[in-house]
Amino acid sequence: MKYVLGVDEAGRGPLAGPIAIGVVAVPERFIIGREFPGLADSKQMTPVARAKMFRLLQKRARAGDLRFCVRCTGAERIDAWGLTRAIFSATARAVRHLAPKPDGVSIYLDGLLKAPEEYDQQTIIGGDEAVPIIALASIAAKVVRDRLMMHLAKQFPEYEFEKHKGYGTKEHYEALSKHGPCAIHRRSFIGL
Question: Fewer Cβ atoms within 10 A, N terminus or C terminus of the chain?
Answer without folding.
Answer: N
